[in-house]
Amino acid sequence: MPATPAHGTRRDILEWLRDPDAHFPPQRRPDAYAHGVPAGLVAAKLGVPRRVAQRHLRLLVALGLLRAGRFRRRTRYRPDEARIAEVAGLFEKGWRTAPEVTRTEDRR
User: Which is the most buried residue in 15, 42, 65, 101, by most CB within 10 A?
Assistant: First the structure.
């Protein structure tokens, strides 16, 4: 499995976490997803063990695309919309963040 944020599974996770009410089962509390989604629900949606889902989630946290926080004795994950917009902007620009450097040769 490639370790890139563009991996299809990770793109799916980001999409699901942006609108958890639409992608995860309803919870008893109306604001259940206000603090994010636990890894167990992501694992169930992916059909993989929780450990596998946690690996994807931790990579997305390390990249800054997700935020992790503890709530009611569980780690919950939610998207960092500002960072996602920043990364999307880099893709739109073609990863050109620095001006091109040109070499000049000294001709004698």
Answer: 42
